[in-house]
Amino acid sequence: MSDKKLKIYNGSIITPYRIIKNGTVVVTNGVISTVVAGNVDVPGAIEINADGKYIAPGFIDMHIHGGGGYDFMDGDVNSFLKIAETHVKYGTTAMCPTTLTSELSGLLETLAHYEIAKIKNKSGSQFLGMHLEGPYFSKKQSGAQDPRYMRNPDPAEYKKVLFHAHSIRRWSAAPELKGACEFGRHLKSLGIIPAIAHTDAIYEEVLEAFESGYTLATHFYSAMSGVSRRNAFRYAGAIEAGYLIDEMDVEIIADGIHLPAPLLKLVYKIKGASRTALITDAMRATGMPPGKSILGNIKDGLEVIVEDGVAKLMDRSAFAGSVATADRLVRTMVKDAEVPLQEAIQMITATPARILGVADKKGSLVVGKDADLVIFDAGINIAMTIIKGEIIYNSASILKQRSLETTA
Q: Partner of 194 at 20 to 30 A CA spacing, among 35, 44, 242, 327?
């Protein structure tokens, strides 16, 4: 059986170390086998002329709820597949499907659907494991999550969920809750990442949680305590803790709305590209026209309105979710936050890959790693998405076969 080869040439290759102008990437049996300047002859390969566009590692979205009119909490396998197919068009080659606070039954049902969907998923972004967001949150920082389901960590409950530990990559909780540190230590012992979220904690509580394994701050700034006064004394909150604890990773919804440009610049200045992951936190309306939508389960979720590039509560008193796509995150960081392209790409590739523990196979364009690749132009418009060497999405601007190539 002969090797299956793919050759992508005439592109600017974004590696962890430099951008190679007029370079060539060769993929052999789904793995990157060559990264080189100039053009090379690869007999028998399918050839793609990148036409001067950028060739980058595929985008990894650590926190995503839905898209294309679907939500992971809808209660069926098809929703998982449709969301993955929606986001692959925007450069996302891998993701962590994310839940909302719910009854235990809803959580278990979603995990069961994930296990089936992971096997069936052939034409969308890869699934790297579930992200459970809640239900162990502070009602003071509920955000758009339903406070009816928020509660303290219960070992009897979460151990039932952790029967599915093989499908769970990360779990977000408020670290100040009773039993939260014990919960974090238990997750860590199973290889699951504990993360702080929807929290009203002060710095000292976050520090204790960090020592118990909470090394990631979920959607940094959003539903998270800052400086506060308690009994006249001023306390640093979870946001300040995220800055002060150098080893704490943070993820940000870099849509330019949840965090405006000055805050994006501040996060980049203090945490840097190596400790900051870009996430969409996208809900079902992502990739859909503006208007009314549902946050969470299609049957009993929260009605929201999508306008101005973001989902809002119906009374417009607060944001109710993101409709960002991965390409938009990169575009915002480069254009509004003035981050160099190479580092913006790092924030949505190498950094999430390291945090999720998959950096041995994903997150950078180097020989020996999975051929998860994305090709885009100077405006970060996606031309092609490739997963393990297979062309999954192909826009009109790039054709697959050399014999069909045209010049722009």
A: 327
Cα distance between residue 356 and residue 364, in whole Å:
14
Query: Exposed (0-12), middle (13-18) or buried (19+): which is 351, by Cβ within 10 Å?
Result: buried
Residue with tokens 């959580």: 107
Helix (H) or strand (E) holding 236: none
Which of 91, 87, 85 lies closest to 14, judged by CA? 91
Q: How far apart are CA 257 and CA 36, in angstroms?
A: 39
Residue 359 CA: distances (Å) to CA of 57, 97, 313, 342, 365? 12, 19, 37, 17, 11
| The residue to which tokens 């904690």 are assigned | 201
Distance separating alpha carbons of residues 265 and 251, to the nearest angstrom: 14
- Average pLDDT score over the chain: 95
The strand pairing partners of 31, in sequence order, are 28, 370
Distances (CA, A) of 389 to 33, 136, 357: 11, 39, 21
- Residue 403 tokens read as 């014999």
Q: How confident is the model at residue 144 (pLDDT cuts 50, 70, 90)?
A: confident
Catalytic residues: 281
- Whats the size of the chain, residue-wise? 408
